[in-house]
Design brief:
Layout lengths: L5 E11 L10 E6 L1 H10 L10 E7 L2 E10 L4 E5 L2 H7 L6 E7 L1
Antiparallel strand pairs: 1-2, 1-6, 2-5, 3-4, 3-6, 4-5
Length: 104
Amino acid sequence: MDHREYFELTARIWLWKPAAKPQASGWHFLTIDGQTAAEIRFAALGRTGGFGSIKVAARIGDTRWTTSIFPQRDSGGFILPIKAEVRKAEGIGEGDEVTVELGV
């Protein structure tokens, strides 16, 4: 049985590249902040992993996957990594605004 609490948000995908290797392909993320981040933090009390990560089930469009979200110091919220296979399947990329459903 699924005991997850679900959250839906819309955010823009952004690209992070390591400063030491600007030619690297980098990682795609979206930021979870504000009230949604606070509610996720509450829902995950006692269930955080290393670095404050939280395991989630994620869905964008028809694509579902499991991953973790990680605390983001700048926003006070979290960042969600968006895998290449998800971006390809949904035809999305850097700068696109997407709606994501997260099960915590």
